[in-house]
Every structure is written in C-alpha cells, then in structure tokens.
Design brief:
Layout: H1 6-27, H2 31-65
Helix pairs in contact: 1-2
Protein name: Stage III sporulation protein AC
Keywords: Membrane, Transmembrane, Transmembrane helix
Pfam families: SpoIIIAC
C-alpha cells in the first residue's frame, strides 16, 4: 500500500482548474455555471478521496484482524 504523491497533485490540479474556471465564468457573468463547475469539481475530488479512505480502512482492518 505505498502511496505516492500523484493523488495529491491530481487533487491540487483539479482544484486549480476549477478555481480558474469559476473565476472566468463569474467574470463573464455566468454565475450559475460557475457554481455548477465548482460543485462538479467537488464531487469528483470527493469520489477520489472516498476511494483512498476505503483503502485505508481496509488496510487498518487487515492489520488489526491479522488477515491478508
């Protein structure tokens, strides 16, 4: 279960892109679209984090139950 920093960079990259899109859309007066972009970006990152948390809980379960 060696974690690399790729996931952190992916989440940071998504955050930067979403922030830029939100700013551009808000400057253009499309605030509804800006909010939707932010919400979709949040959901994508949330699903990514859920996968890693599930893996973490599975590893903790395996360690404390001494099973493989």
């Amino acid at each position: 279960m060696p974690y690399n920093v790729d996931a952190i960079f992916q989440i940071a990259g998504i955050g930067i892109i979403v922030a830029m899109l939100h700013t551009v859309l808000k400057q253009m007066g499309k605030e509804d679209y800006a909010h939707w972009v932010t919400l979709i970006g949040f959901v994508v990152v949330l699903f990514m984090v859920v996968v890693y948390v599930e893996d973490l809980f599975q590893t903790i379960k395996n360690v404390f139950l001494f099973s493989s």
